[in-house]
Design a protein that fits this description.
With about 100 residues, the chain is mainly beta. It has no helices and 7 strands. The radius of gyration is 14 Å and the shape is globular.
């Protein structure tokens, strides 16, 4: 099972950017699809309904030959599975647009 974990640089819930302290995107390849999950730690408690939300993410994908960070822009719908204080967990509900499967290892 191939997978990758990437650090989230910025994230928006629909048109609303979330004040991010730290966030990760975990992607796992299954037989016929990709599963993905986002774990966010926000600066302040964010009111997010337990529902499906459109997410837009900018993630760090690596570094170029000069040592500069490279980023990818992804988008997809995800459901809120839990919130605890400043932590929000989303589970992807389908395609993660913009993700390059060559990042899986």
């Amino acid at each position: 099972m191939r997978h990758v974990q990437q650090i989230i640089a910025t994230i928006a819930l629909g048109p609303r950017p979330l004040p991010l302290r730290h966030g990760t995107l975990q992607i796992v390849e299954r037989d016929d699809h990709l599963d993905w999950e986002v774990v966010l730690h926000t600066i302040e408690v964010e009111p997010v309904a337990r529902a499906v939300h459109p997410l837009s993410l900018e993630v760090i994908t690596g570094a170029d030959d000069d040592g500069r960070l490279t980023v990818g822009n992804y988008a997809g719908d995800a459901i809120v599975v839990r919130t605890v204080d400043n932590t929000i967990v989303f589970r992807g509900g389908g395609t993660l647009v913009g993700f390059d499967p060559t990042h899986l290892s």
